[in-house]
Specification:
By secondary structure, the protein is mainly alpha-helical. The chain is built from two helices and no strands. It has a domain of 26 residues. It is elongated, with a radius of gyration of 27 Å. Keywords: Membrane, Transmembrane, Transmembrane helix.
């Protein structure tokens, strides 16, 4: 039974500390902008790699 009491006290203390903290980090808007930028960059790299691969495959002479 002391284990459950200790866990309850630890959890209650941790939740109280979380409630007292008003600074919870940045808003999600900058994170969303960064993720959107990374997605656009990944799409551009994919298009570039595909176009280069197609050019390379088209340059191979057919038998």
């Amino acid at each position: 039974m002391p284990l459950f009491t200790r866990l309850h006290v630890a959890l209650s203390t941790h939740l109280a500390e979380l409630r007292d903290e008003s600074d919870r980090g940045d808003s999600p808007v900058p994170t969303a902008i960064i993720i959107g930028g990374l997605a656009v960059l990944a799409a551009a790299i994919t298009v570039l790699a595909t176009s280069r691969a197609n050019l390379w495959m088209n340059s191979i002479p057919t038998p």
